[in-house]
Each structure stands twice: as C-alpha cells, then as structure tokens.
Amino acid sequence: MKELVIPEDVLEILESPSSIKVIGTVDSEKNVNLAHVRMVKVVGKDTIEFAYLCDEGKAIENIRKNKNLSLAIFEPDTIAFQLKGRAKEMAGGGKGKLFDGGRDGNDEPKPAGVVSMKVRDIYALTMAVAGERWA
Amino acid sequence: MAVIPDGVLDILAEPRSIKMAGTVDNNGVPNVVVISTLSVLNPETIAFADIRLGKTRRNLRQNGKLTIAVIGGGKEACQIECRFVHFEDRTPLFYRWRNLLWDRMHMEIKGVAIAGVVNVRGAEL
Questions:
Q1: How far apart are CA A19 and CA A130, in angstroms?
Q2: How do strand A79-92 and strand B18-24 relate by DSSP bridges?
Q3: CB contact under 8 A, A34 and B107
Q4: Opening angle at CA A41, ends A133 and A89, nearest 5
Q5: Which residue of B has its CA nearest to A50?
Q6: Among B46, B41, B21, which Cα is nearest to B115's?
Q7: Where is B99: in which H helix or E strand?
Q8: A-B interface: how many C-beta pairs under 8 angstroms?
Q9: Which CATH architecture has domain A8-129?
Q10: Residue ranges of domains in chain A
C-alpha cells in the first residue's frame, strides 16, 4: 500500500489562519460531533496536530473511545478538502509540536492539549471535483 | 424535535457563513463535507441539495445520523444535530430547487435532503 504524503496544495491551507477547519468525531451511539478547529500544525508527511481548548468536550470524549476522524478544511472562495484518518495520541499540559515555538504573548486562548492525527485519505470537496480522491 | 434559536438562524442567514454536514457509516467512520445549499424550511426542519453527494448520501440512507456545523463570519461556531428524514424528488419543493440551482449555478440536482432538528449546541473544540 502506497504511503500517503500530504500534498503541497493541502499543506498550504491546513496551516492558513483564514481557512475554516471542522473535525468530525463519532460517539458510541453513532452520533456525529462537529467542532471548529482553530489551530492545526503539520508535524510529518502524513501527520497533523490540532489543539483543543477543553478536556471535557464531546469531541475529546469521542476520540478517547473512537479514533476515527474526519477533518474538513475550506479556504473560502478557493478550495476545500476532507482529510480522513485516525487519532494517534493525545497530549495535555502543553506537550506536542503545536506548542513549540512559544505561543505566549498572543491573544488566543491557551489550548488544553493536542490530538495527533495520522491522515490516511484526502478527498477534494470543491464542487466540480467533489468526492475525488486527492491523495 | 427542537427549534433552531434566533441567534443561530441569523448565522445561517449570513451569506458568508460556512456550513458543513457530518455523517457516519455503520463502522463508526465520520464523513464531513461542505454544503453550500443549506436552507431552513422552518425552525425545526433544514434542507440541502444533493448535487454531488456520494458518501454522505450512502451514510444518510444507512443510519440517518446527521450533524450540521455552521461557522459565522466572526468565527462563531455551532452545530445542529439532525435526524435525516428522506430525499425528495419529483415534488414541488424538488422542482423549485432544481430550477433555482440551475438558473443560479448551472448545476443539476438529484434530490433535496430533508432533516429534522434534534438539538443545537456550540461547536468549540
């Protein structure tokens, strides 16, 4: 099986502050929870980290029980993708590469932790090519 | 059933708000897509067009689980948990949407998904 490498066009919008990112998780009753992701960092050729603000949120509770994740990213007026994969690990207390480089001094709320996600498939969501595998 | 509060209706009505639909397959794998045609039929019922829904359509038919995320221009986020009802085609609503979307976007629709609102909550991570 070919190893996935996140393509350049997806990398560009993943860390873009103007792109909208929403993570989908699922509970044991198969209810879908959608949460707005504010901070994402690419930490490997197929791995990203995203920050969460609350340890007790429904998304984090779901991830502890079901590792399947779907991250939709949308750069308004340009392009959108869906990244599917699994949570590899979760780290609280300021651990994870997302926290490296010093986040102190900005106005954003301090994250409670990060989730590391290994990406397995990427699909286009832009209308003309929606649903096509991108990587 | 629940009712979409006025504040969320206001965000949904913003032309620049982003709407996404989350579904799940029977193996518990989520699928999240951007929905550009989401509309509120009444405060208890939403609808969106099936233009190129693939996995979303299959998941809805499998188990009916649906959650809509709405992100406003000020990045305020909420989610609307829904129960999928059915896809409409060959109904007055379908023909009205088909003609409207063809005139505005030159896109052919296959159906209109109808869903009832179960609850509305925040979508902060």
A1: 18
A2: unpaired
A3: no
A4: 85
A5: B125
A6: B46
A7: helix B92-105
A8: 115
A9: Roll (2.30)
A10: 8-129
Which residues of chain B have a CB within 8 Å of the CB of A51?
125
> Tens digits of per-residue pLDDT, B53-103?
899 999 999 999 999 999 998 879 999 999 999 999 999 999 999 999 999
Domain ranges of chain B: 6-122
Assigned token pair, B23: 């579904």
Q: Pull the structure tokens for residue A59.
A: 């998304």
Q: Which CATH architecture has domain B6-122?
A: Roll (2.30)
Measured at the alpha carbon of residue A32, what is the angle toward residues A85 and B2, in degrees to the nearest 5? 165
Tokens read off for B19: 């709407």
Nearest-CA neighbor of A98 among A51, A134, A60?
A51
State the DSSP string of A27-51: -TT--EEEEEE--EEEEETTEEEEE
Distance CA A68, CA B20 (A): 18
Determine contact: B81 vs chain A, CB below 8 A. Answer: yes
Q: Which two tokens stand for residue A74?
A: 């949308």
Cα distance between residue A132 and residue A92, in whole Å: 35
Q: Does A127 sit within 8 Å of B36, measured CB to CB?
A: yes
Q: Does residue B12 contact residue B40 with C-beta atoms inside 8 Å?
A: yes
pLDDT tens digits, one per residue of B26-60: 999 999 999 989 999 999 999 999 988 899 999 99
The alpha carbon of residue B92 is apart from the nearest alpha carbon of chain A, in Å, by 25
Integer CA distances (angstroms), B57 to A14, A72, A129, B65, B107, in order? 26, 17, 16, 11, 17
Q: pTM to 2 decimals?
A: 0.90
